[in-house]
């Protein structure tokens, strides 16, 4: 099973032929700029299309703290997304309280463990909306 740096490498080498379909769900690559280092960081994340946008979840397995990639995009919301062989610039934003319930249902259907992760932590796990920059 692909995970972490190996997942990113195989995904990039094969334009997602290896790594996009993973554990009965779909994965994109999110490249953020390090808020301290300024270096690019690429993270494989489960996603779903939502209209013209893509949704990802900042779950970190239900950890009490946000994942590093989420902290990076809070500092710099402009990022790059790769879905299979397609790369595009996007702007990230956190789902509003009004949007979140429906978006959470969409993401929990694709990865049911998200419901368990939310039960493990006191923080509200953010749903991140990736809006393509045109």
Automatic annotation (TrEMBL):
One of its GO terms (molecular function) is coenzyme F420 binding. Signal peptide: none annotated. One of its GO terms (cellular component) is plasma membrane. It catalyses: oxidized coenzyme F420-(gamma-L-Glu)(n) + a quinol + H(+) = reduced coenzyme F420-(gamma-L-Glu)(n) + a quinone. It holds the Pfam family F420H2_quin_red. Belongs to the F420H(2)-dependent quinone reductase family. This is Deazaflavin-dependent oxidoreductase (Nitroreductase family). It comes from Nonomuraea fuscirosea.
